Amino acid sequence: MSSQDIPEENLPAEQETAHGAVSVADEKNPFADPGLPPHEHRIQDIDERAAKRSERVVAFLFTVSMLATVAFIASYVTIPHDKSIFVFPIGHLSALNFALGLTLGVALFCIGAGAVHWARTLMSDVEVADERHAIEASPEVRAKVHADFKQGAKESAIGRRKLVRNTMFGALTLVPLSGVMLLRDLGPLPGTSLRHTMWSKGKLLVNMNTDEPLRPEDVAVGSLTFAKPEGLEEKDEEFQTEIAKAALMIVRLQPDNIKDKRELEWSHEGIVAYSKICTHVGCPISLYEQQTHHVLCPCHQSTFDLSDGARVIFGPAGHALPQLRIGVNDEGYLEALGDFEEPVGPAFWERG
Predict the structure, then answer these.
(1) pLDDT (tens digit per residue) in 228-244
(2) At what angle are helices 162-174 and 48-78 packed, to 10 degrees?
C-alpha cells in the first residue's frame, strides 16, 4: 500500500519545518540547490494496524532480549565449567562458553534490532534541512534544540507506545546483570576445592615418568622423583587442574639427617613426599641439591630445606611446602595415608 492509495484526509499532516529553499544557478552559484525530494509516507504512517504490528515486533525483540539475559544467568550458574558439547561444524566446545556467548549475543542483538526497527518504522523519517550555525550556541539556538528534543520525543511515540517503552526498559535493565554475574567467582563459590587434592588414604604413588607405582627400593638416596596419584591420567579432562594441586616430589634421605620430628614420622625409611608446587606463586619446583637437601624454585629462587620440614630458607615464598604422609601397603608399594593437611601452593585469602 502506498500513499497514493490513501485518501488525502487520512494522510498525516506534514511537519511545519523548512525543507530548504530551491535555488537557481547563476554566475555566483553555478550549482543549483535541487532541494529535498518529496516525502513519501511509510505504511506505518498511514495505517495504524501496520504501526501496531511494528510495535509488537519491537516489543517481541526486547522481550527475547530479556529472556536471553535470564538464560545467560541461568547458564552461568547451572552449567559445569568442564562440560563440553559437539557443535557442527565447529567441533567440541565448552558448553558453558557456548551458552554464554549465544545468550549474550542474542540479548545484545535483539536490543539493537528492536531499536533499529523502532526507528525505521515508528519514529518520524521526515528529512529536515537546517542551516549551519556558529559553534557558540545563541539563546535562540538553545531554545530550538530544546524544542527539537521535545518534538523528537513526541515523534518517537515513547509516551504513547507504552508496550515498546516498557519492554525496552526491561531489556536495558536486565542486560547489565550479565556483567554482574561475571563477578560471581570473586566470592567464596570455589568452596573447599582449593583445600583438597586427589590424594587420599590408600592412593598409590605413581612415577610421573614411567607411569608405574613406586616401591621404596625404586627411590635411591639423594634422588629426586616426581609422582602423581593413582588413577590420574594425562588424557583425563581434569588432568591439568588436578596435577596442579597433587604433584609430588619424592626424596630419600638418611633418617638421621631428618631434623623435623613430624617429617620423620610421616616418612617411610627416610622417603619423604612434599608438594611440588611452590608456595610463592605456584611454579613447579624441579631443582634439588643433594648435599644440602635443598630444593629451589626456578621462577623466583625460593629455597626450601627438605631435611627440616621443607621450611623456607631463602626467597619470597611465604610458608613451607606441605608434606604428604606416606607408607607401604601389603604389596610393597608406596601409598598415601591421607590428603595434605593444609592447602598446597600459594596462600589465598580464604585460607584462614
Answers:
(1) 999 998 888 888 889 99
(2) 20
